[in-house]
Amino acid sequence: MAFQQEEKDQLAAQLVQELSHTPYACLSLTQLSGGTANFIFRGILAHPLPDGTQTVVVKHSKEFVAANRNFSLEVSRCLFEETMLNALEESLPRITTNNISLQTPHLYHFDREQSTQILQDLSGTIDLKTAIVSSPDVRVNLLPQPISISIGHAVGAWLQEFHSWAAHPAQVELTKKMAANEPMRKLRYQISYGAFTDVVQKFPEIWDQHGSALKQVQDMAAREYAKSIRDEGAGDWSVIHGDFWTGNVLIPNTPSLDKRQQAKGMNLYIIDWELAQFGRREYDVGQIIGDLYERMHFLNVDSALWVIQGFVAGYGPLSDAMAFRAAIHAGVHLICWYIRRNPTAPFLEDPELIKGAIRTGTDFIVKAWEKDRAWFESSPLVCLFG
């Protein structure tokens, strides 16, 4: 059950009181949309900060999901987000590719006792997922093909830079800290590899044909998620974002065809680092590809495919082994669309479209498991293979 409006108002009043004796005292808090795990507000500061900042984002975490208090979630997640935001700002502050800059939001203050973060207010932005699923007349201005490809390319280049940074020996202490984020690692497994076979079994025609291979993939993933930084063979693993999808990429909420905007450049932000963990970089690569393909499949949105193409080009060449593993992860993510939706709401999608998503996700997994490169060369994921 979600918080009722009265409870949200009480929480906002409580947060205003808690902040009243800090430099971030707020005149008011307004809840922001998005973010199912935490309570997120925009605060109007009682006094501007020295740099002139007048508004901030207040992010408050509890030991359950904000959208469903019956879904327990370790509040320690915000400690790991603090660690990542501080580390990234210190040594990976901004990356610019083709006049598009990417960075993480600035963390002004973190109250560990209250699990409350004060973050940079990224007003004037929209998450990439919302832009992609917006109405066609809005989307054609926000994400024409050249801009879609450019954004995808910049995000891919940023992710490659982040993965390389995270794998550098200089980040060994950070890796040790983030490897302790076991609750979120278990959650990530639970809502992906731990669940996808149950979904496919709801479609006997697909399960009967591919169930054996899917179980092998699930067993492989279980062994992977049990791996620690002390295990042999974990040397090519590192810190990953852990929830790298289009909802966590913010872009300007202005028409991208605006020539003045293109001339002065574009600022993008990578947000929500609570699920950062020790893992394979293919998890990040595969998740955003699976997420984008989901938009393309259900909404027939060309911009999602353009972003995929730009993203893979920006990330750079993948070995066959990495491409196959990313394709498996993309397939699992696509299948798990089935459980990411509101479980109490009726399906609005055509049954054949739903079955098509499960079949396509299964094909991605099985063909990658079989290392069938020829199949992928005529698939929507051909760009993974150079």
Give an overview of the whole structure.
This protein is α+β, with helices and mostly antiparallel strands and 386 residues long. It has two domains: 1-73, no CATH class; 74-104 and 123-384, Aminoglycoside 3'-phosphotransferase, Chain: A, domain 2 (Alpha-Beta Complex), CATH 3.90.1200.10. The protein has 16 helices and 14 strands. The protein has helices at residues 5-19, 77-91, 128-132, 136-142, 145-167, 172-178, 182-190, 196-200, 204-225, 259-264, 281-299, 302-315, 320-335, 337-340, 351-369, 373-376, and strands spanning 26-31, 39-45, 55-60, 64-65, 68-72, 95-97, 100-103, 107-111, 116-120, 125-127, 238-240, 249-252, 266-270, 277-279. Strands 1-2-3-9-8 form a five-stranded antiparallel beta sheet, sandwiched between helices. A five-stranded mixed beta sheet has the order 6-7-13-12-10. Helix 9 (204-225) crosses helix 15, helix 11 runs antiparallel to helix 15 and helix 13 (320-335) packs antiparallel against helix 15. The longest helix has 23 residues, at 145-167. The protein is globular and about 60 Å long.
